[in-house]
Specification:
The complex is a heterodimer of chains A (about 160) and B (about 425).
Chain A: H1 3-7, H2 11-27, H3 31-35, E1 44-47, E2 62-64, H4 66-77, E3 89-101, E4 106-118, E5 121-136, E6 139-149
Parallel strand pairs in A: 1-6
Antiparallel strand pairs in A: 1-2, 3-4, 4-5, 5-6
Chain B: H1 3-14, H2 17-20, E1 21-22, E2 25-27, H3 34-46, E3 50-54, E4 63-69, E5 72-78, E6 84-88, E7 103-105, E8 109-110, E9 117-118, E10 124-126, E11 149-153, E12 156-160, H4 168-172, H5 176-183, E13 191-192, E14 198-202, H6 206-213, H7 219-222, H8 224-229, H9 231-234, E15 246-251, E16 254-258, H10 259-265, H11 283-293, H12 295-304, E17 308-311, E18 315-318, E19 321-329, E20 332-339, E21 341-342, H13 346-359, H14 367-381, E22 388-390, E23 399-400, E24 406-409, H15 414-433
Antiparallel strand pairs in B: 1-2, 2-22, 3-12, 4-5, 4-7, 5-6, 8-9, 9-10, 11-12, 13-21, 14-20, 15-16, 15-24, 16-17, 17-18, 18-19, 19-20, 23-24
Helix pairs in contact in B: 3-15, 11-12
The chains are: A alpha+beta (about 160), B alpha+beta (about 425).
Chain lengths: ~160, ~425
């Protein structure tokens, strides 16, 4: 095995690196860097209330197109968003990654467990996330991020951070 | 113990609601005291009228939903003849809950424990090994327990767990005009609540959510981040003190923020209440409204928009959303939110859905911050001093209209005082009845 092949990361490695990066930016409230991971036009950040929901007839917790993602980030960046001021302490673990390569894009599924700390209380979030990613050089941009919470039916607590 | 009589005397004083709820101030313990909370569940929720479900949530025979009223889990069913029933969610045999999911469809109700089976109108129709019961056992007497009273207005179904007292119409009083105002935005006068309910855990007392629903004072501060980030989405009307909008007290604890008046007085554009949709994008809806109500009246309705109101004790007609408050404990509640779909306005409904998600629920640009402020307020009132919560804004400047409605400026606390006045009367009456 040559050094060149060793340096050429596999698709799995590149995707894993992207998912970890996205998780880190969300955990650390690096809002603009997180927003920059999105496709400039075609984007959907979706948290449904049940797996397999029809978002055209059923209400979702979040159904942000690109403009609404930008609005969400602008609101967080004012520093006046009470629900994230102070910011929640966040760390998430990403695992069980499955990859479906497709035509011009890659679909990934991954599990997450997220601990949120706020005012001395800890809140536990978990679910399975589907990303639709478009390759861009060695990395990717997000076109879709769908988060199926294990407790999607609710009730759920305030979700003002980036999940 | 020498302190015991003093303590009990103090407690008796604390539960003097004429003292705890004064005009212009209420006592902090109303938001924290478990004994007060327990009485509220009984006097307000069990012995009064509470919203339970909307008929459109049960479109087909065999549909059911489970809802909580006070401390009680209730089962709302539509039977095989299309009639709606409300029973306690409890098997008449050994007591297991009959429906474990929040909604669904069943031809009959079978208990998971011993398979006692009930028709959707509550009759016991099947008992395994029935012969083994003694002679006096009569299936006809062993059906599900029906709530004492059920009634509806405009498709909104309410329950009352005691047989006597005010009718639903008496309870709603003048506030029926608020429901009429919402239904009147549909060319056929009907709404659908079939997009599902967002359920949001709020770490605050249920009454704080009531107070906030009709608070015209907090928006520029609590929602300052949205005003800064997305003015178009956040503000569709004048939020300043000079606004023509009035807060109103309809009596019986029902209140609103009358934005409609603001739009109409300004002879505003159609649909400003939707965030400013161009009427040209809703041609079928506009035409259907004109056909149904005539040119002028359709225009008036489409300028004025929906009510922004709170009906005592648990349902808010929150413009194009219905919000329901479910108390969980003195310091916890669940807020339910569902977008309102207007029959005959499909062009608008798709937008209503997206607007609901943007503004409301646990991730909403508005309600996430209301929830946070509610939590901070709940934490604050646990501190014993200064004892009272001040609700005096606008007192002495109120106008009593010939129809009995009291109104004041957008930022006045007339709406909160209207809620508390009825709360005080209800809690005192309950005490007498108890």
């Amino acid at each position: 095995m040559t050094v060149a092949t060793l340096e050429q990361a596999t698709l799995t490695e590149r995707i894993t690196r992207f998912l970890y990066r996205e998780a880190l930016l969300a955990d650390e409230h690096r809002y603009l860097e997180w927003e920059a991971l999105w496709d400039d036009e075609d984007a959907l950040y979706w948290v449904p209330m049940r797996q397999g929901a029809d978002p055209q007839t059923e209400v979702s917790y979040i159904y942000d197109n690109r403009a609404r993602i930008a609005s969400r980030i602008r609101q967080l960046n004012t520093g006046l968003r009470h629900a994230q001021s102070p910011q929640s302490g966040l760390r998430r673990i990403i695992s069980n990654i499955e990859i479906e390569p497709g035509e011009g894009e890659v679909v990934t599924h991954s599990n997450f467990m997220l601990m949120e700390a706020r005012r001395g209380e800890q809140y536990f979030w978990a679910g399975r996330t589907t990303h639709v990613l478009v390759p861009e050089g060695e990395t990717f941009r997000m076109k879709r991020k769908t988060i199926n919470l294990v407790d999607a039916e609710g009730p759920i607590g305030t979700l003002a951070f980036l999940i | 113990m020498a302190t015991a009589p003093a303590l009990s005397r103090q407690l008796a004083e604390q539960l003097d609601f004429a003292h705890l709820v004064q005009d212009g101030r209420v006592h902090g313990s109303l938001y924290t005291n478990p004994e007060i909370y327990a009485r509220e569940m009984d006097y307000i929720f069990h012995r009064g009228w509470s919203f339970v479900a909307h008929e459109s949530e049960l479109p087909n025979n065999g549909d059911f939903v489970v809802r909580k009223v006070g401390t009680q889990s209730l089962l709302v069913t539509r039977d095989n003849k299309g009639e709606i029933h409300i029973h306690y969610n409890r098997c008449s045999h050994r007591g297991a809950v009959l429906c474990q999911t929040n909604s669904g469809h069943r031809p009959r109700l079978t208990c998971p424990y011993h398979a006692w089976t009930f028709s959707l109108d509550g009759r016991l129709i099947g008992v395994p090994d029935e012969e083994a019961y003694p002679e006096g056992f009569n299936k006809a007497e062993a059906g599900l327990a029906r709530v004492a009273r059920m009634d509806s207005y405009g498709g909104f179904i309410f329950a009352n767990l005691v047989p006597n007292g005010k009718t639903l119409r008496d309870h709603l009083g003048r506030a029926t005009e608020l429901i009429d105002g919402l239904l009147g935005l549909s060319p056929v006068g009907r709404i659908k609540l079939n997009a599902g309910w967002i359920k949001h855990k709020m770490r605050s007392n249920w009454k704080m959510i009531v107070e906030n629903q009709v608070d015209g004072y907090h928006a520029p501060m609590t929602h300052g981040s949205l005003l800064k980030a997305n003015q178009t989405f956040a503000t569709v009307r004048d939020r300043k003190p000079k606004s023509a909008t009035r807060v109103r007290d309809f009596g019986n604890g029902h209140t609103d923020i009358d934005h409609t008046r603001d739009y109409l007085e300004a002879n505003d554009r159609l649909f400003r209440w939707t965030g400013g949709i161009d009427p040209a994008r809703l041609p079928k809806y506009v035409q259907a409204m004109k056909d149904a109500y005539g040119e002028d009246e359709a225009r008036r309705r489409l300028i004025g928009g929906p009510p922004h109101s709170m009906l005592f004790p648990n349902i808010s007609l929150a413009e194009m959303n219905i919000m329901v408050i479910e108390p969980v404990s003195p310091t916890q509640s669940i807020q339910y939110t569902c977008p309102v779909f207007l029959e005959g306005a499909e062009e608008l409904n798709a937008r209503t859905l997206r607007r609901c998600e943007g503004a409301l629920g646990p991730a909403g640009f508005l309600i996430a911050d209301d929830a946070e402020i509610g939590e901070l307020t709940q934490m604050g009132v646990a501190n014993l001093e200064p004892e009272w919560v001040n609700l005096s804004r606008g007192m002495g400047k109120e106008e009593i209209l010939p129809n009995g409605i009291t109104q004041a400026g957008l930022m006045d606390e007339t709406s909160q005082r209207g809620f508390w006045r009825h709360y005080r009367a209800t809690m005192a009456e309950g005490q007498e009845a108890a």
